[in-house]
Amino acid sequence: MNGIYRKKIVIIILDIMSNQCKLPIGFFLILILVCAVCINCVSAEMGNPNLVVYPDSPTIERGSTSTLSVSVQEISGLDYAYGVVVTPTIASSSRCSISPISRTTSRISEYSSSTFYFTISAPADALTGTYTGSIRVKYYETGAMGLGNYGPYYESGTFSFTLIKGTGDLSITSNPSQASVYLDGNSRGKTPLKISDIKEGTHTVSMKKSGYKDYSTQISIAPGSLKTLATTLAKSTADIKVSSTPGPANVFLDDIYKGISPVTITGVSPGKHNVKLVYEGYDDYLKEVSVTAGDVISVDASLEKSLPIPIPKIPGLSNEMVIGIIGMLLLIGIAIPVVLKRKPNRSHYRDNAAASARRHQNPIDPDVSDKRDHEEEIGVFEYEKIKILTDIEGLKDTLAKSRNGEETRKLQKDIMDKSINLAQVNVQLQDKAGLLESLEAIKRNSPVHLDELIHFIVQTEHMIKYEMPMTPKFSESLSELLNQIIQR
Predict the structure, then answer these.
(1) CATH 2.60.40.1120 assigned to 238-302
(2) What is the third-level CATH fold of 167-232?
(3) Which of 2, 149, 215, 302 could be stapled to 207 by a disulfide with Cβ–Cβ 3.0 to 4.6 Å?
(4) How would you list the strands of the sheet with 238-245, edge to edge?
C-alpha cells in the first residue's frame, strides 16, 4: 500500500488519542488493529505496483552463444514489488537453449527497474532465421504499514532473436615453416598461423615457398569449431650432398664453384648435371647425375692419386729448368702452325701507313695487299686465342688449388673476363664453333644478361647448322653485349 495512506491513518489515530478521551487504552488498540485489517483488505486495489517488461533482440551465430537481457520496470509509483521471478522460454523449433531457467530479485522499488541476463546457446546445426520467445514475471506486494503479503501477480512479454551463419577458426602449420598462406586468394601471413572468424563453409587454402611446389587444398569450416591443417611441402628442386676421400676438395656443379667437401648443394633444378671435384695431387673426379624435384642425392667421391709425369734427366740442368724448356717447346709447337699461315718476311704489326704504301706499289691489283694484311691480322688473332686459352687453363689450375673464398671469387671473375675476351677473338676469326663454346662458358658463370646470351647461342647454332657466315650486325650486337657483361 502507498505510504501516503499509511501516514494519514497514523495521524488520525494519534489525533484521537491526544483529545483526552476517557475510553480505555485497550479500545484504542482494538481500533488500530481493525483499521489496519480493513486497510490491508483494500490495499491491493488502492496501490498496486505496475511492472513492464523490456527484452532485447539478440543476433546469434550458429555454433556460438549470445546474451538476452530483460529489463523489468515499475512505472506506477504506488507501491513496490518483491520476490520478483523472471522466467524466459524459447521456441523449440530453433533448437536453441537458454540458461539459467529463471532469475530473481528481492525487490523492485517504485519508479525503479532491474535487468536480468540469460545466455542463449545456438548449436552448429540450428536453422538460420528469426525466432520468438516469451517472458513471464512473477511478483508479490504488501499491505498497509507493510502488513500482509498479496500475490502472486504476473506480467508477461515477448522477445525475438535471429540465427545467422557462424564462424570458425583455422590453425595452419607447414614443414618447412614460413610458407606464405593464402585463404581464398587473399594473403593471410606465414606459417605457423591461426586465422580466426572464418565464415562457415568451404574455403581454398594455398601455400607458397621458394624452392617448393605450390600447395592448394579445400577445407570445410564448421561454426564454432577449430580446424587444423598441417602439411609437408614438396620440393621443386633437388639437393646434392657431396663428400670426398680424401678431402676437403673443391666442388663444382656444371663448372660453377659450390664450396669444399663435404657440402650440400641446394636448389638444384631437375635434370642432368655434372659434379666435379678437384684436389691437389689427385685426378679430377667427374660424375653426371640426374635429379628430379624433391630428390636428395649423395655423391661420395673416392679420389685417385695422380700419376707423376717422368721428367727427363739432362746433365747440368735442374728439374725446374727442364720443365721450363718443355713448356717452351710445347708453346712453340702450338705457335708454328700459326706462323706458317703468314707470308714470309712480313711483320705481324704493320700500321695503316705501311699497308697503304703496299697498295700504292701494286697498282695492278690493289686488293692483293689488303688480302695479305687480312691474313696477317688473322694470324695475330690466332696467336691471341692461343694465349687466352693458355691463361684460362692456368687460372683453372690455380682455382682448383685455392682454399681462400675471396681468392676463389677473384679467380672466377678472371676466368669470366678471359672467356669474354676469347669470345671476342672468335668473332674476329669467324670461328663459330669456338664462339659457341665460349658463349656456353659465359652463360654458365654470368649472373646477368642470360636471356640475351641464350639468344646469341641459338643464333650461333643456327649459323653452324646452315653454314651461314657471321653478319656485321650480329658481330656488332654481340660485341656490345660482351662489353656490357665485362663492365658489370
Answers:
(1) yes
(2) Immunoglobulin-like (2.60.40)
(3) 215
(4) 263-268, 238-245, 296-302
Our CA angle for 50, 52, 53, nearest 5°, is 150
Give the H/E segment covering residue 164.
strand 149-164
pLDDT digits (tens, 9 = 90+) for 172-187: 999 999 999 999 999 9
**Half-sphere CA count of 158, side-chain side, radius 13 A:** 4
Mean per-residue pLDDT for 16-25? 56
Q: Tell me the three state secondary structure of residue 349.
A: coil
Q: How far does the chain reach from its first CA to its final CA, in angstroms?
A: 103
CA distance 244 to 30: 122
Residue in 91, 135, 98, 132 with CA at minimum distance from that of residue 115: 135
- Give the length of the chain: 488
Cβ pair 200, 143 in contact under 8 A: no
Q: How many CB atoms lie within 10 A of CB 348?
A: 11
Helices (H) and strands (E) in the chain, counts: 9, 23
Beta strands in 271-387 (DSSP E): 271-278, 285-291, 296-302
For residue 231, give the C-alpha cell: 602439411
For every residue of 168-180, DSSP letters joined together read: EEEEEEEESS--E
Helix or strand (DSSP H, E) at 3: helix 3-18
CB 422 within 8 A of CB 438: yes
User: How far, CA to CA in Å, does 335 sit from each of 106, 372, 423, 486?
Assistant: 119, 19, 20, 28
pTM for the full model? 0.43
Kindly give, in sequence order, each residue whose CB lies less than 8 Å from that of residue 22, ignoring residues fewer than 6 positions away. none
CB atoms < 10 A from the CB of 366, how many?
13
pLDDT digits (tens, 9 = 90+) for 103-158: 999 999 999 999 999 999 999 889 999 999 999 999 998 765 556 678 899 999 99
Report the run of H or E that residue 142 belongs to, with start and end: strand 129-142
- One-letter amino acid identity for 314? I
Q: What's the rounded Cα separation, in Å, for the pair 110 and 80?
A: 5
Nearest Cα to Cα of residue 83 among 153, 145, 144, 146: 153
Q: β-pairing, 263-268 with 149-164? A: unpaired
DSSP state of 342: S
Contact 51, 72 (CB under 8 A): yes
Residues in CB range of 7: below 8 A, 6 or more apart: none
Which long-range contacts (C-beta less than 8 Å, at least 24 apart) are formed by 387-390?
388/418, 388/421, 388/422, 388/425, 389/422, 390/331
